[in-house]
Amino acid sequence: MSPLELVGIALFGAAGAMLRHHLGGFVHESAARALASERHFPFGTLAVNVFGSFVLGLVGSLAMGGTMSPVLASVLGNGFCGAVTTFSTVAVDAERFLADRRVVHAVADLLLTVLAGVGAAWIGMSIAA
């Protein structure tokens, strides 16, 4: 891996982490205001994971098709998408729901994350194809 690729991953990783923080917080606060009964559901985490899945599907398809260089794909995929998405938060949220005996919330969070993420990746890949 070249020094330029490492710097790109670091810079785009920082941008992805900041976007995750701000976009996730914005979506969470907006959903909490709109859906007072579900103010503790992690809509912000769901939103950033679906967004990141879409972008990674787009990037992956462009890279596989030869339209995007492997270095740029690595910078965007590993750096940006790796930082903007967060499986560990989904896992902790599911565990928190289970500890609170909110099994339906845990299952809904996991299913929504996986299904919407795969769907978003498919849409991104379809757009780039």
Describe the structure.
- By secondary structure, this protein is an all-alpha fold.
- It has one domain (3-128).
- 84% of the residues lie in helices and 0% in strands.
- The chain has five helices and no strands.
- Helix 1 packs parallel to helix 3.
- The longest helix has 32 residues, at 3-34.
- The mean pLDDT is 95.
Q: How many domains make up the 3D coordinates?
A: 1
How far from one another are the termini? 27 Å
Briefly note the structural class of the backbone: mainly alpha
Unreliable stretches, pLDDT < 50, 5 or more residues?
A: none
Number of helices: 5
User: Order of helices and strands, N to C?
Assistant: HHHHH
Tags for this entry?
0% strand; mainly alpha; 129 residues
Secondary structure blueprint with pairings:
Elements: H1 3-34, H2 43-64, H3 70-84, H4 87-99, H5 103-128
Helix pairs in contact: 1-2, 1-3, 2-3, 2-5, 4-5
Offer a quick outline of the entry:
The chain has 129 residues and is an all-alpha fold.
